[in-house]
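Notes from hallway chat w/ T.B., transcribed later so I don't forget. T.B. wanted the structure written out for a chain they're using in a teaching module, and asked if we could keep both sequence and structure tokens in one place. Agreed to drop them here.
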Amino acid sequence: MGIGKTTLIQKASEVLKSSGVPVDGFYTEEVRQGGRRIGFDVVTISGLRGPLSRVGSGPPPGKRECRVGQYVVDLTSFEQLALPVLNASSSSGPGQRVCVIDEIGKMELFSQPFTQAVRQTLATPGTVVLGTIPVPKGKPLALVEEIRTRKDVQVFSVTKDNRNHLLQDIVTCVQSGRK
């Protein structure tokens, strides 16, 4: 089990939606089998789901292998789900909206179109991104560091100790960013 970033994002999305805020985007969810994690799925806010990665299996025929530890990333599945919701967030008409991006991490960043779509979404007026980025360890991920150091970004460090107290702070921050 992780720290709880995805659960926090899901709860914040629900609170925002129930207060009338348009919310779109995606989150990642671990997939377990027989008590052990076998991979991750990407799940859109509207409920579409597909594999992000699985343990060990090779890439589909004709595709390059993108691997993070024991997980092989299914770029095609990820892009088919994640890109349309990001592109919709940055191309829809005027009005304030929230775009959930969970997560901007090593697996997702194998996708160049995803990297471009994240930058585009961050640059879209009226769109507030509610996203997760990994704690820096090892070689820095360029896009993650770019996001972390942006003047218009508020980073919350989620721990097992504070995760239950952060929800209201995050919701308030997103709502104030929408004004």
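Follow-up for T.B.: Strands lie at 23-33, 36-44, 49-55, 67-68, 71-73, 97-101, 127-131. Might be a good example for the class.
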